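Um, can you check?
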Amino acid sequence: MPVVSVDEIENWIGRETGVSAWVTIDQKMINRFADLTDDHQNIHVDDDAAKAAGFVGTIAHGFLTLSILSKFIYEAGIDVEGAIAGYNYGFNRIRMIAPTPSGAAIRGRFMLKAFELKSPTRGLFTYDAVIEIQGVEKPALVAEWLNMTEFAAADSEAKHLATP
Protein backbone atom coordinates (compact mmCIF):
# COMPACT_ATOMS: atom_id res chain seq x y z
CA MET A 1 0.00 0.00 0.00
CA PRO A 2 1.49 3.35 -0.97
CA VAL A 3 1.86 5.81 1.91
CA VAL A 4 1.56 9.37 0.62
CA SER A 5 1.25 12.89 1.94
CA VAL A 6 -2.01 14.79 1.48
CA ASP A 7 -0.27 16.90 -1.17
CA GLU A 8 0.68 13.77 -3.18
CA ILE A 9 -2.78 12.19 -3.31
CA GLU A 10 -3.80 14.22 -6.36
CA ASN A 11 -1.03 12.44 -8.33
CA TRP A 12 -2.81 9.13 -7.73
CA ILE A 13 -6.22 10.13 -9.12
CA GLY A 14 -7.01 8.03 -12.18
CA ARG A 15 -4.28 5.50 -11.34
CA GLU A 16 -4.36 1.98 -10.00
CA THR A 17 -3.31 2.03 -6.35
CA GLY A 18 -2.75 -1.69 -6.05
CA VAL A 19 -3.86 -5.28 -6.34
CA SER A 20 -4.30 -7.49 -3.28
CA ALA A 21 -3.16 -11.05 -2.76
CA TRP A 22 -5.52 -13.88 -3.67
CA VAL A 23 -7.87 -15.18 -0.97
CA THR A 24 -9.62 -18.53 -1.26
CA ILE A 25 -13.32 -18.52 -0.44
CA ASP A 26 -13.93 -22.02 0.89
CA GLN A 27 -17.13 -23.66 2.02
CA LYS A 28 -16.22 -23.26 5.70
CA MET A 29 -16.04 -19.47 5.21
CA ILE A 30 -19.34 -19.47 3.32
CA ASN A 31 -21.03 -21.52 6.06
CA ARG A 32 -19.69 -19.21 8.78
CA PHE A 33 -21.02 -16.20 6.88
CA ALA A 34 -24.40 -17.95 6.47
CA ASP A 35 -24.52 -18.56 10.23
CA LEU A 36 -23.47 -15.00 11.04
CA THR A 37 -26.07 -13.40 8.76
CA ASP A 38 -28.73 -16.11 9.14
CA ASP A 39 -28.77 -16.41 5.34
CA HIS A 40 -28.82 -20.14 4.65
CA GLN A 41 -30.17 -19.93 1.11
CA ASN A 42 -29.50 -23.34 -0.43
CA ILE A 43 -27.26 -22.08 -3.28
CA HIS A 44 -24.75 -21.13 -0.58
CA VAL A 45 -24.88 -24.18 1.69
CA ASP A 46 -26.25 -27.13 -0.30
CA ASP A 47 -24.14 -28.39 -3.20
CA ASP A 48 -26.96 -30.38 -4.84
CA ALA A 49 -29.40 -27.47 -4.64
CA ALA A 50 -26.79 -25.11 -6.09
CA LYS A 51 -26.19 -27.51 -9.00
CA ALA A 52 -29.96 -27.80 -9.55
CA ALA A 53 -30.05 -24.00 -9.78
CA GLY A 54 -27.44 -24.08 -12.57
CA PHE A 55 -24.23 -23.44 -10.64
CA VAL A 56 -21.20 -25.76 -10.60
CA GLY A 57 -21.63 -26.06 -6.84
CA THR A 58 -22.26 -23.74 -3.92
CA ILE A 59 -21.44 -20.07 -4.33
CA ALA A 60 -20.42 -17.36 -1.90
CA HIS A 61 -22.97 -14.82 -0.78
CA GLY A 62 -22.61 -11.59 -2.72
CA PHE A 63 -22.35 -9.74 0.57
CA LEU A 64 -19.54 -12.06 1.71
CA THR A 65 -17.59 -11.23 -1.43
CA LEU A 66 -18.34 -7.53 -0.95
CA SER A 67 -17.26 -7.57 2.70
CA ILE A 68 -13.79 -8.83 1.80
CA LEU A 69 -13.11 -5.46 0.15
CA SER A 70 -12.23 -4.32 3.68
CA LYS A 71 -9.36 -6.82 3.81
CA PHE A 72 -8.21 -6.00 0.29
CA ILE A 73 -8.08 -2.22 0.79
CA TYR A 74 -5.38 -2.66 3.47
CA GLU A 75 -3.14 -4.25 0.85
CA ALA A 76 -4.04 -2.20 -2.22
CA GLY A 77 -5.42 1.20 -1.22
CA ILE A 78 -3.66 4.43 -0.36
CA ASP A 79 -2.58 5.30 3.16
CA VAL A 80 -2.11 8.92 4.18
CA GLU A 81 0.94 9.95 6.18
CA GLY A 82 -0.21 10.61 9.72
CA ALA A 83 -3.42 8.60 9.29
CA ILE A 84 -5.24 8.13 12.57
CA ALA A 85 -8.27 6.17 11.35
CA GLY A 86 -9.97 5.12 8.17
CA TYR A 87 -13.52 3.94 7.74
CA ASN A 88 -16.07 2.80 5.24
CA TYR A 89 -18.22 5.73 4.11
CA GLY A 90 -20.50 3.75 1.81
CA PHE A 91 -20.92 3.05 -1.88
CA ASN A 92 -22.16 5.02 -4.83
CA ARG A 93 -22.58 1.87 -6.90
CA ILE A 94 -22.25 -1.90 -6.45
CA ARG A 95 -22.81 -4.55 -9.10
CA MET A 96 -22.40 -8.27 -8.46
CA ILE A 97 -21.39 -9.51 -11.89
CA ALA A 98 -20.40 -13.17 -11.53
CA PRO A 99 -20.91 -15.72 -8.75
CA THR A 100 -17.91 -16.76 -6.67
CA PRO A 101 -17.84 -20.57 -6.50
CA SER A 102 -16.82 -22.24 -3.28
CA GLY A 103 -13.10 -22.95 -3.47
CA ALA A 104 -12.37 -20.05 -5.84
CA ALA A 105 -9.67 -17.47 -5.17
CA ILE A 106 -10.52 -13.77 -5.37
CA ARG A 107 -8.51 -10.57 -5.16
CA GLY A 108 -9.18 -6.83 -5.11
CA ARG A 109 -7.99 -4.28 -7.65
CA PHE A 110 -8.32 -0.58 -6.82
CA MET A 111 -8.14 2.64 -8.82
CA LEU A 112 -8.38 6.01 -7.09
CA LYS A 113 -11.21 7.85 -8.79
CA ALA A 114 -11.32 10.97 -6.62
CA PHE A 115 -10.13 12.52 -3.40
CA GLU A 116 -11.83 15.39 -1.60
CA LEU A 117 -10.33 17.14 1.38
CA LYS A 118 -13.26 17.63 3.77
CA SER A 119 -11.27 19.45 6.46
CA PRO A 120 -7.60 19.90 7.30
CA THR A 121 -7.67 16.47 8.94
CA ARG A 122 -10.23 14.50 6.95
CA GLY A 123 -10.28 13.28 3.37
CA LEU A 124 -12.79 11.28 1.31
CA PHE A 125 -11.36 8.72 -1.10
CA THR A 126 -13.49 7.38 -3.94
CA TYR A 127 -12.20 4.09 -5.34
CA ASP A 128 -13.26 2.07 -8.33
CA ALA A 129 -12.96 -1.40 -6.82
CA VAL A 130 -13.06 -4.70 -8.68
CA ILE A 131 -13.04 -8.16 -7.15
CA GLU A 132 -11.58 -10.62 -9.63
CA ILE A 133 -12.07 -14.39 -9.59
CA GLN A 134 -8.94 -16.32 -10.49
CA GLY A 135 -9.33 -17.91 -13.92
CA VAL A 136 -12.67 -16.21 -14.67
CA GLU A 137 -12.99 -13.41 -17.22
CA LYS A 138 -15.89 -11.59 -15.54
CA PRO A 139 -15.28 -10.03 -12.12
CA ALA A 140 -17.25 -11.11 -9.08
CA LEU A 141 -18.19 -7.50 -8.47
CA VAL A 142 -17.45 -3.90 -9.29
CA ALA A 143 -18.10 -0.99 -6.96
CA GLU A 144 -17.54 2.70 -6.47
CA TRP A 145 -16.49 2.73 -2.84
CA LEU A 146 -16.12 5.68 -0.48
CA ASN A 147 -13.54 5.66 2.32
CA MET A 148 -13.01 8.46 4.83
CA THR A 149 -9.58 8.92 6.39
CA GLU A 150 -8.77 10.95 9.48
CA PHE A 151 -5.19 12.22 9.57
CA ALA A 152 -2.97 14.73 11.32
CA ALA A 153 -2.74 18.03 9.43
CA ALA A 154 0.51 17.85 7.46
CA ASP A 155 1.15 21.57 7.15
CA SER A 156 -0.51 24.94 6.76
CA GLU A 157 -1.10 24.29 3.04
CA ALA A 158 -3.53 21.48 3.89
CA LYS A 159 -5.57 23.94 5.94
CA HIS A 160 -6.34 26.19 2.99
CA LEU A 161 -7.05 23.25 0.65
CA ALA A 162 -9.94 22.20 2.88
CA THR A 163 -13.49 22.64 1.70
CA PRO A 164 -16.03 24.01 4.18
